[in-house]
Amino acid sequence: MSDRCLQMFNRDEAFESIMAGLAADGGVIVKDFIDQELVSRLNGQLAAHVEAAQTGSDRVGEEMRFFWGSQTKRFTRLAARAPAFAELLDHDLMHRWARHSLDGDYWLNTGQAMIVGPGEKGQVLHRDIGIWPIFQQLGRNGPEVMVSILLALSDFTEEVGATRVIPGSHAWEDFMQTPRREDTIAAVMPAGSALLYLGKTVHGAGENVTRDRWRHGLHMSFVLGWLTPEEASPIGVPWEIAKNYSPRVQRMLGYASRRPGEDQSPLNWLIDFVDVRSYLGIPVATPTVASGLFDDQWLPSAATRDEQDRQGSNEDQADCAR
Ligand SMILES: O=C(O)CCC(=O)C(=O)O
Ligand SMILES: [Fe+2]
């Protein structure tokens, strides 16, 4: 395996440095992405579901069974199962990154527990954009449509199967090139830290060579609002539950219509041609820059995004070559 390391940043490091790392390598680690207290609550609220989940899957076809692995537990509907997940879904840095990378309105693709068990083989190396084959075909010049996070809920070490990444693979000339395991780097990080990676970056769960240790990971990804997400969130997370969450979290879960362009009128995901929020009786405020609603409830204009990015860039450019 490669002896390089993934670039590592602190959560409060200059945003531009983290983005520069992502642009260069396609994947970086952010240390202490969430506090230990939130790690504990997530683990506590998910524990019974982890316990009840089966390894592997008998519900999907041969190819997906292979992709999932036979010793790995997976489940979704996290916002219905763990209120703490809704807090995670409101993470400011994550939204700043999604706004920066995805040119348009975005929503949750999926939130998944990925618990790799003892004896699990290394997962097939892949790009997450593979779920929409056209983007795999468009290759590196295709639009940025997806950003992903693998959050460590237990310590990620090579032995337990830390996610493996091929730095630079988001920019390969040929996306049909077969990835080699020896070019991968393990995202070794303590619980609470996160691997941030692009939809175009080749990666896969590592092999768990331990006899009795489980690797607790949580995947979250965001996609442009005009793409069908992997997980049908508003069906899996009913309004009775989602109504308790913040407007931004509700929007991520599909409880808001999509605005594909800078125009603020809803165009997709409508009911009777109006925003789904009107249908559900959720107040829909008219956004203006002055109202500040662009930031947490609405898609900010490109100018607003640039301004926000400039405001966050007062710190010195960090040294990326650590
Ligand atoms: O569990 C992991 O480390 C990665 C899993 C993954 O990339 C996937 O299932 O798409
Ligand atoms: Fe993946």
Strand order of the largest sheet: 1-2-8-5-10-4-3
Gyration radius (Cα, Å) is: 19 Å
- The helix/strand class is alpha+beta
Strand content: 15-25%
Topology pattern, helix = H, strand = E: EHEHHEHHHEHEEEEEEHHHEEHHH
What ligand molecules are bound, each kind once?
A: 2-oxoglutaric acid, fe (ii) ion
* CATH fold label of the largest domain: Jelly Rolls
Count of helical stretches? 13
In angstroms, what separates the terminal alpha carbons?
19 Å
How does the overall form come out from the CA principal axes? globular
The total tally of domains equals 2
Calculate the mean pLDDT score and round it: 87
- So what's the CATH class of the largest domain? Mainly Beta
Helix content: 25-40%
Low-pLDDT runs of 5+ residues are: 287-306, 311-322
CATH superfamily of the largest domain: q2cbj1_9rhob like domain
Which second-level CATH architecture of the largest domain applies?
Answer: Sandwich
Count the beta strands.
12
Give your account of this protein's structure.
Helices cover about 30% and strands about 15% of the residues. By secondary structure, it is an alpha+beta fold. Helix 1 (about 15-25) links the parallel strand 1 (about 10) and strand 2. Bound molecules: 2-oxoglutaric acid and fe (ii) ion. Fe (ii) ion binds near residues 126, 128 and 203.
